[in-house]
Amino acid sequence: MKYFPLIVNKERLLSPDYIPDELAEPAIPFSAPPGDERRLMEKTAAKAAVRLFTQAALNQMGLVGVSGYRSYDRQKKLYEDAQKRKSSAVAPPGASEHQTGLALDVSCPAVNLELEEEFEATKEGKWLARHAPLYGFIIRYPRNKEKITGFPYEPWHIRYVGEALSLYLSLTGMTLEEYHELE
Cβ distance 104 to 41 under 8 Å? Predict the structure, then answer.
């Protein structure tokens, strides 16, 4: 079974020219307009996202994709804009998992499609946390793991790692960083 244990963080940066081999647009609801790169994901992750969102819809969950793939240049601009606002909430260029095409920020109408911690308390946030591992996704930046991941808790940020690894990480409560230390 194929899995995607690639770690991207402030210590393990992607090069500026890194682009996933195959990007595809999953047939899921997105807040980004048609043609926007944020609607793209790595092909295998995109297929898994379709399965996840289909099951969510069958359970009356109003999940919406906010941001999938993000190029190095787009991340650089977001980071520079955040620095001007003196915000540390945006990863430096090369340190964003979105550049891999394996990450997807998810929201719902209950929080006005915003990426906020309040998402975890919505029915969609609770459903996503319980069901994402069944489709190969993990909540990448879990609560109380900030020192390990280097990023604050983000209940909306899911990352495709493959079903076997997502279930293992979910059952053990480990992060990708902790898993990598075992290898």
Answer: yes
167-178 pLDDT tens trace: 999 999 999 999
Show me where the domains of the chain are located: 23-182
Report the pLDDT value the prediction gives residue 181, as an integer from 0 to 100: 87
- Specify the amino acid at residue 148: I
- Residue labelled with tokens 């955040």: 82
List the structure tokens of 97. Answer: 């998992």
Active-site residue, from 37, 154, 163, 181? 154
Task: Give the tokens for residue 25.
Answer: 């647009």
| Spatial separation of the C-alpha atoms in residues 115 and 18, rounded to whole Å | 26
pLDDT band of residue 138 (cuts 50, 70, 90) is very high
**Fold annotation for 23-182:** Muramoyl-pentapeptide Carboxypeptidase; domain 2 (3.30.1380)
Per the annotation, the verdict on 154 as an active-site residue is yes
